[in-house]
Every structure is written in structure tokens, then in C-alpha cells.
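Researcher: Good morning. I'm working through a list of sequences from a screen, and I'd like to move beyond sequence-only analysis. For each chain I'm collecting a predicted structure so we can compare shapes side by side. This is the next one on the list. No need for commentary yet; just the structure.
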Amino acid sequence: MTTPVALTIAGSDSSGGAGIQADLKTFAAMSVYGASVLTALTAQNTMGVTAVHPVPPDFVTAQIDAVFDDLAVGAVKIGMVGQAAIAEAVAAGVARWRPAHIVLDPVMVATSGARLLPEDAIDALRTRLIPRASLITPNLPEAAALLGEPIAASDQAAAEQGRRLLALGCPAVLIKGGHGQGGESIDHLVTAQDSIALAAPRVPTGNTHGTGCSLSSAVAAGLAKGEGLEAAVRNAKAFISGAIAAADRFTVGHGHGPVHHFHRYY
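Model: Good morning. C-alpha cells for this chain:
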């Protein structure tokens, strides 16, 4: 039996709650072998990001080629790219190796509020990476930034923004509702054919570090295992909802603590 493999292309989080570290924990929790390509090193903890050190684009390319040359990658998750030149290197790499599934989390701002993608890189994200993605997973502020619109203030407005994002060239959009209001966190899976609302109880916790990274990597894990898109998204939603609900079992750091990736096991 072939071992399912998922690859994360993202930045590192020195505190272990987000980025590459969160992705690899998610892959392991969902019974998928995880590989990684680092795009940036960050000095960060639960209170914020204090420094970012981009990886040279040619070394990003070398990592991508090394992984694909040997491993049977079933799905790719792309997170923080950091710079336009790195976005170009990632786009060229996935164009060269043509993985069956690409889940793109358009990381622009950290949970702490630190900007992780400069303005000059957003165009590369829109024109080079989003058209190659199978699914993009923006939160409400990211969806608004990609469209140049105000943040959606209702579920209907969020779903409508998802439909407009399809025009950027991706076949599916998952608008994440974690930044919304109300007793439920409602995500919207939007395709040209349908719009599906996925609701979960909103958990009153400050430990939300890495939620976006973990959700997108959970979707990639499902796709790597052969699940269809809707099933992969539903299973990922259930996984991250459980990880958030169990987050207060941890006492880690003094800011936004991590979610509990292994809540199903301990």
C-alpha cells in the first residue's frame, strides 16, 4: 500500500504553533507522511513576529526539486511565501512537477497582526499562484484584501466574495469565518457549481495560533489520501474545530497559544 504524502511549502514558526511546524503536526495527526519546503525563517512566539529571514528563491527551488524527485507527493499546501521572487519560484516549481492537488493559504497577516506579505508580492500571489491552486483558503480579511473590498460583514457577503475570487483562476474557494461574529464559525466552500456553508460552534478561547495553517494543511492531507474536495474540507473543518476546542488543555506562552493538533490522541 502506498503511503500518502503531503508537502507543505511555507515559513517556519520558531514557537511551533503555526507555519511548517503546524502543517507537519497536522499531517501526522491525519495519518499522512509530511515533507516540507521552507520559504522563510521567522523569529516568533505566541505574542508576535519579531524578525523574518527569507530563504533565497534558488534554494526554495532546490528544496522543491529534491522532494518531488524522490517522493510521490499526493497534495501540496502552500502557505507563507513572503516575497514576490519566492512566489515566482514556488509557482515555477509546481508548474514543473504538476502535483494533482494544491491548497493555497494566502497568508498575509499573522494572528498577532504582523504583516507577512508585502504589497509587491500580492500581485504575484494573485497572478502566479492562485491560478495554479485547486483550492484557496482565505480568511475574511484576506479575501477582502485579495479583492480590494471591505471585509464581508455577513455570511451572504462572504459567500459572494468567494464567488468573485473564482475569477482569479482557481476552481474552488474556502472562505474561513473565524474572524466573523456570532455563536457559530461559518466557512463557505464555493465553486462554480455550488456554495456550501460549513458551521461549527465558535469556541471562546484565546489559543488560536496556527488555525489557518492547520486547516489548509488538513485539507491537503485529505486530498493526499484520495478524498474528494468536499469530504476533505468537511473532515478538515472537524479536525480544526476539535483542535480549537481542546486548545485550553495547553498552557503555552503568554499570547495567542497554539491549538491542540493531537487532541484525538492525548
